[in-house]
Amino acid sequence: MPFNATFAPVDPSCTRAAASAPETSPASAEGAGGPLPVLGRDVRVPLVTGGEVTYAALDYAASAPALQRVWDDVAAYAPYYGSVHRGAGHLSQLSTELFEDSRRTVAEFLGCREGDQVVFTRATTDSLNLLSAALPQGTKVFVFETEHHASLLPWRAHDVTYLDAPRSPEAAVATLESALHGAPAGPKLVCVTGASNVTGEVWPVRELARAAHRHGARLVLDAAQLAPHRPVSLAELEADWVALSGHKLYAPFGAGVLAGRADWLVQAEPYLAGGGASRRVARSADGGVEVEWHTTAARHEAGSPNVIGAYALAAACRALTEAGFDGLVAREEELLARLRAGLADVPQVRVLSLFGEGADQVGVVSFVVEGWNSSHFAAALSAEYGIGVRDGLFCAHPLLRTLLGREGDAPGECGAPEAAPGSPSSAGEAPTLNAVRVSFGAGTPDEHVDRFTAAVRELVRNGARWNYRTQEGRCVPEAPDPAAG
Fold first, then answer.
1. Which of 25, 26, 307, 473 has the lowest tally of Cβ within 10 angstroms?
2. Using CA atoms, how far apart are residues 221 and 151, in angstroms rounded to an integer?
3. What sections of 396-466 are H helices per DSSP?
4. 343 and 311 in one domain?
5. What is the spatial distance between Cα 238 and Cα 206, in angstroms, rounded to a whole number?
6. Across 55-115, where does the E strand assignment appear?
């Protein structure tokens, strides 16, 4: 892919330049009406039963494969990158412009309003911890127990009200209204997910934002699962901030975003203290150091930024916009209908849901299988069918306890419990506290979903064809017996 490195000089403040971004190709025709090209689509993996098969990546909710278009854009830029901001060299100025242009691209993708800031971070977790550090003293935080740990845990230093899991979108709004109604005066923040990383169900973000604003609260949206599947606009959803991760948005690992209102961010101490965040540093009369911090997004981006990560994230935003969310959503809904129908044909499968049948949902489905430990089921899907899913508690332990309707000791980290057996649980044995999650997106071929549902039916009907054991808390295939040839 050619790279157009012709550009005009940047202005002295390094805040705006007229560089030309790398030349990019329009969305691939291969993606028109079908899956978008992603990395790894032709990777073949071995099966324990012999032979190999094209890998079916059905763990998009953890990390989506990077779009080929994004990878090509990054590869085109890589030979030209240099240190950003304040550099006089040609490549430094070019990289500065591409970095700031990426910020503008992300702002447009997220429907940012005039005055909103876009801060580049490492991921959603980093973004929400940044916002937590920026909250005014005395802020009261309201968060549903249904959140991913990235949006459940960062607020513990504040006065937090944890809200019970609602059983409908309307109940979510009513629960929040009730909690806010009796809250004392002062700064308040509501944190809510856009789409559940466990059930895929879409939350009523606009209605929750309006409820928050009626009671003088602000709302931050965890869009890590929503943004890869649906358009996200701060202006339309009326949210105050949005956080997301590039690695779930078809970009490589390492970059995320916190976008939204500037006032609390500007008033807070920098998230990290160091170069880039400071506008002026001088020795003070008492022998110390006086610092004047930036009031732009740079205030919370100390150190040399992840320019390639920011550029990759922006490239993913451009690629999804050009592909068109209408077509992407329609195709995903078709795949979701096929998946639901396939699982419905297996009576032993129980799909987990908060809001019940008919709820709006993105391509994320979690379930348990009667008589099976979920870690064993996921291991068999991988080893015998070449299908990659996820099992465990999905970094949402309180939500899984509610959905599974039982108590128990959750694992100390995301994953299957240590007690996971290497075979289906026997009659009367207490089931372990974990589930299986299948998730897909813009790069998923029809065949992967069909292979998955066929594999589920076959495993439930015939059982695993291989022996498995527990190793470091995971179910893994037993090594073949050399004597058996």
1. 26
2. 9
3. 397-404, 446-462
4. no
5. 6
6. 56-57
Mean pLDDT (the chain) is: 89
Angle at the Cα of 349 (from 398 to 468), degrees rounded to 5?
A: 85
Of 337, 382, 342, 396, which Cα lies nearest the Cα of 363? 337
Collapsed DSSP state (helix, strand, coil) of residue 378: helix
What is the helix (H) or strand (E) element at residue 473, kind and residue range?
Answer: none
Question: Rg of the chain over CA atoms, in angstroms?
Answer: 24
Chain CA centroid to CA 395, Å: 12
Could you give the CA distance from residue 337 to residue 352 in angstroms, rounded to a whole number? 16
Give which of 30, 40, 74, 46 is closest to 60, Cα–Cα.
40
Q: Tell the residue number behind the tokens 């973004």, with chain if given.
A: 127
- Is position 229 within any domain? yes
Residues 137 and 211 in one domain: yes
The rounded distance, in Å, linking the Cα atoms of 268 and 72 is 38
The residue assigned the tokens 């979701």 is: 336
| Contact predicate 227/249, CB 8 Å | yes
Whether residue 303 contacts residue 275, with contact meaning beta carbons closer than 8 Å, is answered with yes
Residues 364 and 430 in one domain: yes
* Annotated catalytic residue, options 191, 317, 395, 475: 395
**CA atoms of 86 and 275, how far apart (whole Å):** 11
Active site includes 317?
no
Structure confidence at residue 12 (pLDDT): 29
Among residues 432, 423, 436, 426, the alpha carbon closest in space to that of 467 is found at 423
Name the phi and psi angles at 38, rounded to 5.
-130, 160
346: containing domain: 324-484
Which parts of 335-407 are beta strand (E)? Answer: 349-351, 364-369, 387-388, 390-392
